Amino acid sequence: MKTCKVCGTIFTPLRPLQSVCSPKCAMKFARERKSLERSEVKRRLAALKTIPQLVKEAQVAFNAFIRERDKDKPCICCGKPLADSGGVGGAGFDCGHYRSTGSASHLRFHEDNAHGQNKQCNRYGAGRAVDYRIGLIARIGVERVESLESDNTPKKWTREELIAIREQYRAKLKELRKES
Length: 180
Fold this sequence. Notes:
Blueprint: E1 2-3, E2 10-11, H1 23-47, H2 51-69, E3 93-97, E4 114-118, H3 119-124, H4 129-140, H5 142-150, H6 159-179
Antiparallel strand pairs: 1-2, 3-4
Helix pairs in contact: 2-6, 4-5
């Protein structure tokens, strides 16, 4: 006599390794086991992600938040309405950084350093730094702009920080979308 691992019924097994009482319980047991295996695989794959992969995921979440935050504002450079024509990243405009992620990677997740920018200005106008600065001063003030310009503190991101940043901006994006 054995107890079924799914329903708890006491049964007499027909085979030596039988652990469930019926085909119905066997199907349910197999589904639960498959679900557990999938979650274990997912957990293991997440543990194998490299720092650059985590930076990319955090950057995607951050950029999506900035695009959603600034969707009703004009372009930070040219003042034209942000194009919402679809395209790369799901928007017709970019999350442009005042100080680029290449030259100031420690500011890549700083909300004052990133604003909605038309693709024409960001990609084909080389970021239009002078116009960006003028628009940035109008939007956040000269003190905060100078603070960004003078911040040269090096930063090395840890796995935990990147995961926290990714989750923080996913949550912020979800909250913004819920509000609108």
